[in-house]
Amino acid sequence: MKITDAKVFIGGPKKNYVTLKIMTDQGIYGLGDATLNNRETLTAAYLKDYLVQCLIGKDPRQSEDIWQYFYRGAYFRRGPIAMAAFGAIDMALWDIKAKIAGLPLYQLFGGKSREGALVYAHATGADLAHLLDSIANYVEQGYKAVRVQCGIPGMPQESYGVSSKGATDKDFITSFTGSVPKEEIWDTDKYVRYMPTVFERIRERFGDDLKILHDVHHRLLPREAAAFAKTIEPFNLFWLEDPTPAEDQASLRLLRQHSTIPIAIGEVFNSIYDCHQLIQQELIDFIRVAVTYAGGITHVKRIVDLAGLHHVRTGFHGAPSHSPISMAAQHHLNVWAPNFGIQEYLVLGTPECDALFPSEHKLEDGLFYVSDAPGLGVDFDEALAGQYEYEQGFHPVTRLADGTVWNY
Ligand code: CS2
Ligand code: MG
User: Fold this and answer.
1) Which of 69, 219, 271, 283 has the least C-beta neighbours within 10 A?
2) CA distance 260 to 401
3) Is residue 173 over pLDDT 70?
4) What are the C-alpha distances in Å from 293 to residues 87, 88, 248?
């Protein structure tokens, strides 16, 4: 069996999905997602200009050898652009492998450890009242876990993960377009003073069973994070995400010494070398890597297995910047992984997105069920893809009130 060609597409409804399609001489094809949010043309160029030509003639069943060939062969190792490009190839090869076997992908990992996998949605509010409505809306739909981000009184409303007043829950995730980044102001003191009251009100209204998650988006210093974690401990969060920038990993020990709050980190990591110390030293509880940015299924499965040895559970990144292809790869890992924790999941499910990426996977009552279609179980409508144009976007840049640049 040989790879005959591979094509790269950029575009999608409201998102610049980068989709790779690998064709073989037996008519079977595989799909991969190389979407690197707000840097999409770079992964597409890496694939088109350097990798696709090396794939032609290779046996697609040799996914391990092909992964090593690209990773070691690049010489300049790691980094999100290369790892997302390798990740897309890897996903497509696993898709082909499972289609040859006539099996849904999870069967190749060892079958299911659970039927439905727990997901969490994003609730957001410009103020507490809006946030409570947003949470109620998800609870009514059957979600058991919700990430909560709230506008902070006295701070401009567009801080991380918070939609403007009156906006729907989905609006804030698509507001990154423009030819230069938006700028946002951040105030740590106001944030750490106000957020505990938010958690308190959520518990009062929704009770103890709702799983509450919160993303600090790398904004606190280690000492601030430790103090904050200690203060919010009574509200029993499912996790506190990215409390500090993860470059200084040893600093997490301070947080660990002061609080038992579960910590989730890793959405910006792109290899096992970024997280093996955090995992082996048991400084985190959930690993947030994504199959896209972290080198595909082959590499992420290694991270999941290492994590399993250290009581670290999975909580894969699932922001709407991932296409349904890599989300499907994660859903297959989620039903298999013995150390599965939770999956971030934003319903992309617009009719346009479903038409571009048809699948039978489904969400029901806050749990995600993969279909038994062979492979990843997601298809791609090439003809429709041509309708979408690339639109440039940037992550916002954050500053403190005095102008100092801070972490987005
Ligand atoms: C966020 C992301 O989902 C999350 O937890 O931290 O939405 C993140 O801001 C984006 O993926 C950045 O591309
Ligand atoms: Mg995050």
Assistant:
1) 69
2) 32
3) no
4) 7, 9, 20
The yes-or-no verdict on residue 198 having pLDDT over 60 is yes
33 pocket-lining for ligand 1 (C-beta < 6 Å): no
CATH T-level topology, domain 108-393:
TIM Barrel (3.20.20)
- Closest atom of ligand 1 relative to the 242 alpha carbon: 6
Looking at domain 3-104, its CATH class is alpha beta
- Dist. CA 321 → ligand 2 center (Å): 12
Task: Assess contact for 92 and 32: CB atoms under 8 A.
Answer: yes
Choose among 148, 174, 124, 213: nearest CA to 348.
174
Residue nearest to atom 1 of ligand 1 (CA): 319
Rounded to an integer, the average pLDDT of 26-42 is: 97
Q: What is the pLDDT of residue 170?
A: 58
Q: Which amino acid is at 76?
A: F
| pTM confidence score | 0.96
Residues 55-77 as b or e (16 or more Cβ within 10 Å = b): beebebeebeebbeebbeebeee
Q: Output the DSSP codes for 171-212.
A: GGGGTTBSSS--EEEE-HHHHHHHHHHHHHHHHHHH-SSSEE
User: Is 40 touching ligand 1 by the criterion CB < 6 Å?
Assistant: no
Q: What spacing in Å lies between the alpha carbon of 319 and ligand 1's midpoint?
A: 6
Query: Hey, where are the domains in the chain?
Result: 3-104, 108-393
Annotated catalytic residue 160: yes
Question: Could you tell me if 359 and 121 are in contact, meaning their C-beta atoms sit under 8 angstroms apart?
Answer: no
Q: Give me the chain's average pLDDT, please.
A: 95
Identify the active-site residue in 122, 130, 214, 217. Answer: 217
| Residues around the ion ligand 2 (C-beta < 5 A) | 215, 267
